[in-house]
Design a protein that fits this description.
Layout lengths: L13 H15 L8 H10 L4 H25 L3 H131 L1
Helix pairs in contact: 1-3, 2-3
Length: 210
């Protein structure tokens, strides 16, 4: 960056110019921009300095600038290192992306497996529930049929009992009717006998009165 473009030709400032050239030459080989120290010395002379003073200031300024540039360069990263870091970052990013994709695929696979397992469990529960409902309905139907059969049996028994009672009542009524008819016949016979006896007594009495 800093280079000595034109050396000083003054004999009184030759030593200073030589020191200036040496101090700037070490860093001039690897710097790209140029600083015209001779022109700067002339500018200082135009502002009232002697050549020796101007070259002395130039030496100090060159050392300060060189130290500043050296410090800045030590703090900066070279292009090769930047490319290396960029490549490393790309590699890390690609690796991270690959790992994320792999994790995502694994997570999706695990989620799909878990979902399939849950769906299978749900289907099993549905099947078990249908079997339980079918078994319960069959049990209820069986109980209803048994209850209906029991009710029919009880109804049949009740009907038989009612028929037996009706038959017994009819038999009792028929016996009473027979007894009543017999009593009527007996009474009629008694009345006929009484009437016949009374008539005979009456005839006998009338014969006696003659």
């Amino acid at each position: 960056m800093l280079s000595l473009c034109q050396p000083s030709t003054s004999r009184s400032g030759g030593l200073v110019s030589t020191a200036l050239a040496r101090s700037m030459h070490a860093s001039a080989a690897h710097r790209n921009s140029h600083f015209d120290t001779h022109l700067f010395v002339e500018r200082l002379q135009r502002h009232g300095m002697t050549r020796q003073q101007a070259e002395g200031v130039m030496v100090v300024l060159a050392e300060v600038v060189d130290e500043s540039i050296t410090g800045m360069e030590s703090g900066l990263v070279s292009r090769a290192e930047m490319e290396k870091q960029r490549y490393a970052q790309k590699v890390d990013f690609a690796q991270l992306k690959s790992e994320l994709q792999m994790h995502e695929k694994n997570d999706l696979s695990l989620m799909k497996t878990e979902n399939d397992r849950l769906m299978a469990d749900v289907e099993k529960l549905k099947q078990r529930l249908r079997e339980e409902v079918t078994r319960t309905q069959a049990g209820v139907r069986l109980d209803l049929n048994l209850e209906k059969g029991r009710i029919r049996d009880e109804s049949s028994q009740q009907e038989l009992k009612i028929k037996e009672v009706d038959t017994r009542i009819e038999a009792e009524i028929a016996g009473l009717r027979t007894q009543i008819e017999q009593a009527k016949f007996s009474i009629l016979q008694y009345l006929v006998g009484v009437a016949t006896g009374s008539g005979a007594l009456l005839l006998a009495y009338m014969r006696m009165m003659r």
